[in-house]
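2024-03-11 09:14:02 INFO worker-7 job=invfold-0412 stage=load source=structure_tokens
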């Protein structure tokens, strides 16, 4: 406590707590933003080159923060996880992604939507029920929803996670393991858990094909995924050379700026409807 003259005390030190204060303010602004409709989902297509189709897209949250333009999740998801607001935000994302997938299905252009799930959200006792309720409410065929989980979710409480994943898989929801290779990479759960796909983290692609070690890791991931009957998705594909190499290594699906950046739902719809898919 700093003295500020007679009878006046400052109960915080600005330098020390600027970070904390900033996070509290951001939490407040996010809560308000959720109520005011400032959040929006963008969708990035996932491409299947063999069939030339877009079987799915990933929902990625953005925040139209007043006075700050379009704010990317890298700046606020971490804060939302710390303050616990991610439970509310995650619920909003799930509801909206499912509603959008249901609209596309009703328009006769079904497109699976993948939703990122954060650890705190997954750990909530009502998570599976939340998903089941949202699917039913929007009458979405469950296979049109994919949940993207990270390795940290799975290892935290493996037994409980296994039960939840099994329940989700029983609903008919598809499950993918996101950012594969960056976490703990315990291979035992890959066999035990009902996962439909692996998403190879972008960091392994950055220096491909020049870096032989990265290419070897990608090759191993692809083989392992296939041996366990999983599809393998490469994310963050930016250059034709990367794609060529990934294709040679047997990757199944691709996502990345080379094909498309994340975009609003209407833009994706328009793009998929045009003859050349561009
Ligand atoms: P992620 O799940 O690994 O999502 C992929 C990120 O890579 C996205 O960033 C996407 O825009 C970006 N990306 C896609 N293709 C390329 C590429 O070719 N090159 C490069 N450099 N980047 C590419 P974004 O949208 O900024 O999201 C960042 C992270 O924020 C996500 O990483 C995810 O962990 C988190 N996130 C986003 N939306 C949500 C959400 O709704 N819920 C939760 N829990 N987390 C989310
Ligand atoms: Ca993801
Ligand atoms: Ca990822
Ligand atoms: Ca990532």
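2024-03-11 09:14:09 INFO worker-7 stage=emit residues=278
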């Amino acid at each position: 406590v700093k003295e500020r003259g007679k009878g006046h005390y400052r109960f915080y030190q600005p330098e020390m707590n600027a970070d904390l204060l900033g996070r509290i303010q951001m939490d407040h602004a996010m809560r308000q933003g959720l109520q005011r409709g400032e959040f929006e989902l963008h969708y990035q297509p996932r491409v299947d080159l063999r069939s030339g189709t877009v079987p799915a897209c990933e929902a990625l949250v953005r925040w139209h923060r007043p006075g700050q333009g379009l704010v990317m999740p890298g700046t606020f998801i971490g804060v939302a996880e710390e303050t616990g607001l991610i439970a509310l935000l995650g619920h909003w994302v799930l509801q909206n992604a499912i509603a959008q997938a249901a609209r596309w299905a009703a328009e006769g252009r079904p497109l699976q939507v993948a939703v990122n799930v954060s650890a705190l959200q997954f750990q909530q006792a009502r998570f599976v029920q939340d998903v089941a309720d949202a699917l039913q409410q929007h009458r979405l065929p469950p296979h049109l929803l994919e949940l993207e989980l990270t390795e940290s979710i799975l290892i935290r409480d493996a037994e409980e996670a296994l039960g939840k994943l099994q329940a989700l898989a029983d609903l008919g929801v598809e499950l993918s393991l996101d950012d594969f290779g960056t976490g703990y990479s315990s291979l035992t759960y890959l066999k035990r858990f009902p996962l439909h796909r692996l998403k190879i983290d972008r960091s392994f692609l950055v220096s491909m094909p020049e870096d032989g070690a990265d290419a070897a890791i990608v090759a191993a991931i692809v083989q392992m995924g296939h041996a366990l009957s999983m599809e393998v998705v490469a994310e963050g594909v930016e250059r034709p050379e990367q794609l060529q190499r990934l294709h040679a290594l047997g990757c199944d699906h691709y996502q990345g700026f080379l094909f498309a950046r994340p975009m609003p739902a209407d833009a994706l719809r328009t793009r998929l409807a045009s003859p050349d898919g561009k």
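2024-03-11 09:14:09 INFO worker-7 stage=report msg="The first strand starts at residue 2 and ends at 3."
2024-03-11 09:14:10 INFO worker-7 job finished
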